[in-house]
Design a protein that fits this description.
alpha/beta; Rossmann fold; 5-stranded parallel sheet; 42% helix; transport; Flavodoxin; Flavodoxin/NO_synth; flavoprotein; electron transport
């Protein structure tokens, strides 16, 4: 199984989440490619069984332009996309917290709720990342097995 962990991070918080996800996937036996959106060369999403997209939320609940550009580069809506991100409730409160995560998950018709982390994933939030990822992987593996049987 091959996974892509593509992320956009300015403060480093979303990158920390991407690192945690990548490490967990590798320990689970997957081949993982990390892709820093806006800096790394374009990718071919067709190569991946799972795609994890990470973003922060910008300017009153907006998805950053670099993430929108990445979505356009991919050019289609792959299946098995799971979305994660970091945010800060002090800017906009609960209504705008990680709204870009919700928007991307809805756009990709993700089978999983987006993972939303308040600023850095360190401390107690590490458990949120691990629990979310384990749930995504269990469901994704079931979906893959179902497709193989048909």
């Amino acid at each position: 199984m091959k996974a892509l962990v593509a992320y956009l991070s300015f403060s480093g918080n979303t990158e920390e989440i991407a690192d945690m996800i990548s490490d967990h996937l590798i320990m689970d036996g997957m081949q993982v490619d990390k892709h820093q959106i806006g800096l790394d060369a374009p990718i071919d999403a067709h190569e991946y069984d799972f795609i994890f997209l990470g973003t922060f939320t910008w300017d009153m609940g907006s998805t950053p332009d670099e993430m929108k550009d990445f979505v356009l580069e991919v050019g289609y809506k792959p299946e098995n996309v799971a979305v994660f991100g970091s945010g800060d409730t002090q800017f906009g409160g609960d209504d705008l917290f990680c709204l870009a995560v919700d928007k991307l998950a809805k756009f990709y018709h993700s089978n999983w709720p987006g993972l939303k982390i308040e600023q850095s994933p360190r401390g107690q939030q590490e458990n949120l990342v691990e629990s979310w990822l384990e749930g995504v992987l269990q469901d994704a593996k079931k979906l893959c097995l179902k497709k193989l049987k048909h």
